[in-house]
Amino acid sequence: MKRAVFIDRDGTLNRMVYDETHGLMDSPRRPEQVELIPGAGRFLKAVRDMGYLAIVVSNQPGLTKGTMTEDELLAVNERLADLLREEGGAWDDIYYAAYHPGGGPGARPAYEERGDWRKPAPGMLTAAADKHGIDLASSWMIGDGLVDVQAGRAAGCRTILLGNVKMEQVQRFVNTEGAEPDHVARDLEKALELIRASV
Ligand SMILES: [Mg+2]
To answer: Is-contact 150 179, C-beta < 8 A?
Structure first.
């Protein structure tokens, strides 16, 4: 059985982008908006060197909401892959959950069928485990959102929440949500230390 590090995309590998139209932080929609979080490529390289598969799992409800096309998503992914490669990093596979519970103009049957892929559900992780033969209990899920922790826990992985917060603060916040991470790490470099220490 293989082991994997599952990694969120937006806010974890690349920065979120300010959307002036809606006044909120959102996923990049065009390749030129993609800005790498420094060290993200080195992180992917390091986990793969340790023998883990690096698998990106990303909610992309804009596809269903009609704010983004699949071609735009793929162009953003391609740009991100180029930037990661400059640091020597790459992913082994990437999954995205297009589903959005509110539906939308972009809703297609294939997206609706995959409602269980949308984090906090673990569908992307379990699909990847089936495809690649991954032992989820010896795998990790890393991301900057509570849904990342929830999806990782639901899949039976160990979890790391990225953020500049103290574990005690996180515990108070998530106790009721079943979203308590195993670790909190300030950045990917710290997350890497935690993974390395666990081996
Ligand atoms: Mg995120």
So the answer is: yes
pLDDT of residue 175: 67
Tell me the CATH number at 136.
3.40.50.1000
Q: What is the tally of structural domains in the chain?
A: 1
Which tokens in the block code for residue 118?
Answer: 């949308």
Asked whether residue 2 carries a pLDDT value surpassing 90, the answer given is yes
Active site residue 92: no
Q: Which domain holds residue 117?
A: 3-198
Q: In this structure, which amino acid lies at residue 109?
A: P
CA distance 168 to 190: 17
Residues bordering ligand 1, an ion, CB closer than 5 Å? 8, 10-11, 144-145
The catalytically annotated residue of 8, 19, 92, 148 is 8
- d(CA 130, ligand 1 centre) in Å: 24
pTM above 0.85, yes or no: yes
Task: Decide if 168 contacts 175 (C-beta within 8 A).
Answer: no
Is 8 in the active site?
yes
Cα–Cα distance for residue pair 182/160, rounded to 1 Å: 6
Give pLDDT tens digits for 50-95. 999 999 999 999 888 888 899 999 999 999 999 999 999 999 999 9
